[in-house]
Amino acid sequence: CPISLTPKKTEQVTTEKQLGIHLASFRKIELARKSWSEIQNKYGDILIGLDYKISSKNIKDKGKYFRLKAGPFIDKQTANETCKLLSQKKAYCKITDFAGEK
Prior knowledge:
alpha+beta
């Protein structure tokens, strides 16, 4: 019988299950995208190797906001450590999921 060269399906981790950190919220998605490079410039040594995602959230009585997140993190402890370092530099940081878009 022929040998299959198709790789066995590996379990993919969905971004909903990945951890991220919420860095900032904006009224416009363009501002959230733009701020990623600014935040990287300011805290690049802490955020090295991370990517960003943006998710939207409707906040009661305030309207729609776009959340800028960094990630993905391998575990909660790593995300916590990163938040601690950012907080020491007076930056906002909250652990969240890493769901969203670019």
